[in-house]
């Protein structure tokens, strides 16, 4: 299956989750974390859905209206047919979990470290392989990557419009910054940032806390 990898911006957009089992709840939470307006349609849900709208009934035609994206956790062929028909009619991106032939998009395995997201896909050929690669990357990429990415983003924002910005970021990427962040050496991080990016780029001013800090 040939696919096109993208990251969707879901802030303020309607997403619908049909189903209440653990995979459906995970998709609902993921969409909510991305800022979407999430509705879960299911008679029962297997976990707390704090902050997420829950419609306590089975799916009905019309539930996908106005949505940009929908997930469904079901193996019922008739329900899948009804969902795919409505999704096509309403132009809603649909993923039926673990039923790739019914999907208009494939949800990748994802490694997350703050704003860093690494998506892994196999075109639906082997979700197990994607999950294995995710576990391997999670073991290699420690929690220090979240503040590291936040620092780089903060420096880019602080130097917006500065023609030297690209070179500054290049130097930071080639520097010991990541290792200093991993070790929680705040003073040395600040010294490095001052040297490469200017005195205004400190952890405090960038709003970044290292591991174990406030």
Structural overview:
The protein is α/β, with parallel strands linked by helices and 214 residues long. It has 3 domains: 14-107, NAD(P)-binding Rossmann-like Domain (Rossmann fold, 3-Layer(aba) Sandwich), CATH 3.40.50.720; 108-141, Double Stranded RNA Binding Domain, CATH 3.30.160; 145-206. The chain has helices spanning 22-33, 77-90, 127-140, 145-158, 165-174, 177-182, 186-197, 203-206, and strands at residues 14-18, 37-41, 53-55, 69-72, 93-96, 109-113, 116-120. Helix 5 (165-174) runs antiparallel to helix 7 (186-197). The longest helix has 14 residues, at 77-90. It is elongated. The mean pLDDT is 95.
Strand content range: 5-15%
Count all strands and give the number.
7
- Give, in spatial order, the strands making up the sheet with the most strands: 3-2-1-4-5
Count of helical regions? 8
CATH top level class name of the largest domain: Alpha Beta
> What's the overall average pLDDT, rounded?
95
Helix content: 40-55%
Cα-to-Cα separation, first versus last residue: 46 Å
* Domains (count): 3
Question: What is the CATH architecture assignment of the largest domain?
Answer: 3-Layer(aba) Sandwich
Order of helices and strands: EHEEEHEEEHHHHHH
Radius of gyration: 21 Å
The coarse overall form would be: elongated
CATH superfamily of the largest domain: NAD(P)-binding Rossmann-like Domain
